[in-house]
Amino acid sequence: VAFPRALPPDELAAQVRQLAPQVAVTTAADPAVALAVASEHHAPLLVAGSLFLVGAVRRLLDAAPGQPDPA
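Request: output the structure for the sequence above.
Response:
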């Protein structure tokens, strides 16, 4: 989700890696790609950012068939 004050994902990932090197961090070009990657790995997904981003991810999850309620 484009937002003028957003920190680029790679910069945020670098900060997380520095603070928590034991945590696997992956970035994605957009929310749909992030959900696809997390789904492939059966991994939890942390959505960090604006409420606009959270809303975009929620819409994608709501539209996915057979997915449990993410709330």
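Residues 50 and 64 are 22 Å apart (CA to CA).
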